[in-house]
């Protein structure tokens, strides 16, 4: 903690956060301790757009999972990051999360690398609308849908059997009748280049990169750690369990994030 606080106290820190930061808000991660019981493969863009049955199953699961995402509150880790940003020590936040909890804690601006579940995009006319509006429409179209979920995934996808989802009614775009999709990057879909470029620009201008709650298994996030290492930018990782880039970090902290980041914020205040 002394080495970590010394790094952050110098300022110019860019944060790269992953699902592990939100576990204390009740949202499980993919590969950390709370993700070990995941029992459904993530939806791919190709399956979502090409398979009506799979799309109906996704929306049924997402309809239930959205309740947990919408009701989740920022934890000490999110609040600590926002505090460090307000104090001028954190100059940028890049998150792989789609839950909006950084913003809810007061962080601004935040680059949502994989988008946000609070928005829905039409694949026909590209109109973007609020998830709350879609939720109201889905409630109206499914007044008797009462399937019980066995838990959710980090992307808001609840656990349901095919039988439970069979009668769910999917709604389309109000404007053009096109296919609706959460405004998030599915597996098999490319992160918009402008977000990638903006994230690289933050890392290249950073005095330090602080990775929070990410196993860095997916290249989508790990590429920023690789870039920082090539540029000689000091890297610190706070995570529960090993990551795929531990060898690139000068500081490693394996501990619960909320408590650790709260302590960090106090030390550098």
Question: What this model shows, in words?
Answer:
- By secondary structure, the protein is α/β, with parallel strands linked by helices.
- It has helices at about 1-10, 45-50, 50-70, 75-85, 100-105, 130-140, 160-165, 195-205, 220-230, 255-269; strands at about 15, 90-95, 110, 115-120, 130, 180-185, 210, 235-240, 250-255.
- The strands form two sheets. The chain has a six-stranded parallel β-sheet with strand order 3-2-1-7-8-9, with helices on both faces. A three-stranded antiparallel β-sheet has the order 5-4-6.
- Mean pLDDT is about 90; it is low at about 30-40.
Task: Give the tags.
single chain, 269 residues, alpha/beta, 6-stranded parallel β-sheet, 3-stranded antiparallel β-sheet, 10 helices, 9 strands, 38% helix, elongated
């Amino acid at each position: 903690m002394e080495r970590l606080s010394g790094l952050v106290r110098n300022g110019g820190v860019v944060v790269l956060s992953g699902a592990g930061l939100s576990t204390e808000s009740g949202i499980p991660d993919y590969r950390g301790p709370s993700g070990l019981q995941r029992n459904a493969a993530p939806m791919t863009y190709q399956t979502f757009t090409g398979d009506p049955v799979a799309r109906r199953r996704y929306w049924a699961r997402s309809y239930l999972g959205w309740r947990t995402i919408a009701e989740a509150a920022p934890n000490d880790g999110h609040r600590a990051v926002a505090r460090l940003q307000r104090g001028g020590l954190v100059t940028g936040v890049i998150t792989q999360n789609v839950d909006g909890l950084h913003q809810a804690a007061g962080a601004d601006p935040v680059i949502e690398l994989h988008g946000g579940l609070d928005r829905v995009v039409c694949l026909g006319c590209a109109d973007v609308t609020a998830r709350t509006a879609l939720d109201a429409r889905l409630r109206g179209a499914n007044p008797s849908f009462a399937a019980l979920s066995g838990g959710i995934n980090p992307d808001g996808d609840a656990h349901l059997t095919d039988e439970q989802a069979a009668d769910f009614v999917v709604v389309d775009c109000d404007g053009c009748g096109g296919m609706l999709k959460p405004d998030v990057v599915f597996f098999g879909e490319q992160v918009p280049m402008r977000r990638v470029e903006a994230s690289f620009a933050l890392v290249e201008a950073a005095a330090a990169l602080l990775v929070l709650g990410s196993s860095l298994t997916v290249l989508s996030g790990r590429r920023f750690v690789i870039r920082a290492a090539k540029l000689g930018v000091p890297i610190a990782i706070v995570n529960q369990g090993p990551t795929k880039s531990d060898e690139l970090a000068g500081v490693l902290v394996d501990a619960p994030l909320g408590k650790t980041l709260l302590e960090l914020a106090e030390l550098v205040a």
